[in-house]
Amino acid sequence: MSVTLSTPVLQPAPAAPPEGAHADVPYELIELFFFAYRDFVGDPDRILADYGFGRAHHRVLHFVQRRPGLTIAELLDILQITKQSLNRVLKELVETGFVESRTGTQDKRQRHLHATSAGRELAVRLAQLQGKRINGALAQVGPEAGAIVARYLSGLIDPSERKKVQDALAGPR
């Protein structure tokens, strides 16, 4: 599959297929995903580095800000990371004042997560950077592109995870 971009800034040069390449593998799209992801997370990475944070902090802060009151169990389910990984990142976010953990009112064993005002401010700042990049790309391909891109990206998600992702996309509770 050969990809031709409508953006004059980036036109992939016809490349010789790699040795052992298969015609059914969309190498150009795979590579574009790598580059797009690099730049999509690169803007927030630079800001997060000022706080000593990384991408795991970004993901946690994003979902905590978007879904106030999210439980630790729900966050683990969304992110599909180990409890150990989450504990380290969450501890740092709590200690630095970006997230607070509150005891559940109905079940005292539950911990409900909330972004503090500093956490909300940082999460929105990062989302605005990424939103600007997304909106710029969508503007290059036309008004109908958002829905098409959303369907395409949804198609990349493991079918067994789609319901969970749809719930996570529901945003604030």
From TrEMBL:
Keywords: DNA-binding, Transcription, Transcription regulation. Transmembrane segments: none annotated. Signal peptide: none annotated. This is MarR family winged helix-turn-helix transcriptional regulator. The keyword DNA-binding applies. The lineage of its organism: Bacteria, Pseudomonadati, Pseudomonadota, Alphaproteobacteria, Hyphomicrobiales. It comes from the Bacteria. Residues 26-158 form the HTH marR-type domain. Residues 1-20 are annotated as: Disordered. The keyword Heme does not apply.
